[in-house]
Amino acid sequence: MSTSTIQKTSPERTAEISESLAKIRARVASASSDRPQTLVAVSKYKPSADILVCYQNGQRDFGENYVQELVDKAKELPEDIQWHFIGTLQSNKAKLLASIPNLHTVQTVSSEKAASALNKALSAERTAPLNILIQVNTSGEDAKSGLAPLTSASIFSDSNSSDIQKLAEHVVSNCPRLRLQGLMTIGALDLSLSANEMENNADFEKLKETRDVLQRWLQTEFGSQEGQGKRWGDESIGKLLLSMGMSSDFEAALKAGSDIVRVGTDIFGSRKTKDEMSNQ
Ligand SMILES: *Cc1c(COP(=O)(O)O)cnc(C)c1O
After folding, report:
1. Structural domain for 104, as ranges
2. pLDDT at 236
3. 18 C-beta closer than 6 A to ligand 1
4. What's the CATH number where 139 sits?
5. Which of 20, 39, 86 has most ligand 1 atoms within 8 Å of its beta carbon, as the pocket-test mutant?
6. Are the C-beta atoms of residues 111 and 83 closer than 8 Å to each other?
7. Is the CB of 136 under 6 A from ligand 1?
8. Is the CB of 106 under 6 A from ligand 1?
9. Which residues does the record list as N6-(pyridoxal phosphate)lysine (modified residue) (predicted)?
């Protein structure tokens, strides 16, 4: 790895990104009281030079949506970056994705096929398991990927396991190179809520309930996970984490109990659309 191939940003751009990042960090800190939280800087479509500015300001967690773009950036950026894959995951891209040594978390797993493909492709040389989050489609929109949320009523009464339970069980039982770290949702912005009410977003509530229910079930099924060989829950706190909240609603998400927020636009500025990118 050599960052010397990366073009430098102008002093103005450097100042602009540094300032936005500092502001977002302050807002994250004040919205999350004293709980630990992770700010993932979402850098899709943004050049490596922009990422390097954040890195030089101490940022280590970055999120990308496209496998090839992530592979290319990971090659030229520092090895202690913790990459989060947050795009739609196709099983046939899992192998390429898993080849990135500093891939830290795949936030968008929603099939056993994808989990198995990641597990199989991961190098035995990796010392830490790859964190995965199960993507939940809390808003029920067709355009969004993810599995249906759980309710307390749905899980213990029903003898048929839900898709989320099946996937969780598959990861914990059959994918030793993965750790089921938590749940992720994109959700919908609820525009009927005022800024003060935004933490009551129904999608946040659904993800929390899903987490609570799944966590209880995992505890019953596999026992609590202490020490080495832990297969689910965050490495340090042993609980399932929640990834919810983006530029428009990350403070509300943190107040609602999110552990991981994914912020792009508010750090790097607006992005070109996918069509504009491919026409370049
Ligand atoms: C692009 C993206 C983000 C960042 O969105 P912003 O509104 O730019 O903060 C967060 N999460 C996912 C899954 C994304 O695709």
Report:
1. 11-268
2. 83
3. no
4. 3.20.20.10
5. 86
6. no
7. no
8. no
9. 44
DSSP symbol at 232: B
Query: How far is the C-alpha of 168 from the C-alpha of 117, rounded, in Å?
Result: 15
- Measured from the CB, is residue 264 less than 6 Å from ligand 1? yes
Average per-residue pLDDT for the chain = 91
Flag whether 6 is in a domain: no
Can you say how many angstroms the Cα of residue 90 is from the centroid of all Cα atoms in its chain? Answer: 16
**pLDDT tens digits, 106-160:** 999 999 999 999 999 998 888 889 999 999 999 998 888 999 999 987 766 556 7
Quote the number of domains for the chain.
Answer: 1
84 lines ligand 1 (CB under 6 A): no
Q: Supply the pTM of this predicted model.
A: 0.94
**In 46-160, where does DSSP find H-type helix?**
48-56, 67-76, 94-98, 112-121, 152-156
Q: Kindly state if the Cβ of 263 falls inside 6 Å of ligand 1.
A: yes
- How far, in Å, is the centroid of ligand 1 from the Cα of 222? 33
**pLDDT over 60 (residue 226):** no
Tally helices (H) and strands (E) across the chain: 11, 8
Atom number in ligand 1 closest to CA 266: 9
Contact 232/218 with Cβ under 8 angstroms? yes
Q: Are 102 and 83 in contact (CB under 8 A)?
A: yes
